[in-house]
């Protein structure tokens, strides 16, 4: 049996009105689905469709096992710039936080990292993973690849520094972005567990190739941003 579209739309409109009136504020948690269903006088399946519709409009988002939350203001992100995530967030009046999950030398070269080797054979590379958050909510996960033959000891020197500062201070290289690629995806379980999403959460994948002054690719970043958290722009 099909759900009554007007009931779904009415529930969506009422929750949307609560958001606009500030009854539930950005970043805050919505009542549980059981409580919402009781407040609206509708069945859970109808409520779930209304919530999914609001999620598709980037007005609310889910955290795995924690419920639904009101979307925060979007982060204005120009992936072409070298400005740090911290500085860009602070300039927008946001409170950034971040952390590394893994810094390791791994065997086997994933396809995404092949441009680092420019056709030469290698069996090892540095892999660094981490996350970034705004106002206490994790909004992206990143995976970075570096050729250890180009930057020996990079993961030991990184500590809590930015990648660009390590390249400049430790290796005398000023790196610039040579390639940017974007595509919509749905996040895997492995990524979701780090940023609190549920399997299949919509995301924007950003792939960056960073090159030295000779045009050699020295770093590849793969970023997975929650789609409701970011506005991307590039100045031409």
Structure description:
Helices cover about 30% and strands about 35% of the residues. With about 240 residues, the protein is an alpha+beta fold. It folds into 2 domains: about 60 residues, Winged helix-like DNA-binding domain superfamily/Winged helix DNA-binding domain (Arc Repressor Mutant, subunit A, Orthogonal Bundle); about 160 residues, Chorismate lyase-like (Chorismate lyase, 3-Layer(aba) Sandwich). The strands form 3 sheets. It has a 6-stranded antiparallel sheet. The radius of gyration is 21 Å and the shape is elongated.
Going across the biggest sheet, name each strand in turn: 4-5-6-9-8-7
Compute the separation of the termini in Å: 51 Å
Shape: elongated
Major β-sheet profile: 6 strands, antiparallel
Unreliable runs: none
Tally of separate helices: 7
Work out the number of β strands. 10
The CATH class label of the largest domain is Alpha Beta
**H-E order:** HHHEEEHEEEHHEHEEE
The CATH fourth-level homologous superfamily of the largest domain: Chorismate lyase-like
Please give the share of residues in helix: 25-40%
Class computed from helices, strands and strand pairing = alpha+beta
The radius of gyration is 21 Å
Strand content: 25-35%
GO biological process, one term: negative regulation of DNA-templated transcription
Keywords: DNA-binding, Transcription, Transcription regulation
Organism: Leminorella richardii
Pfam family, one: UTRA
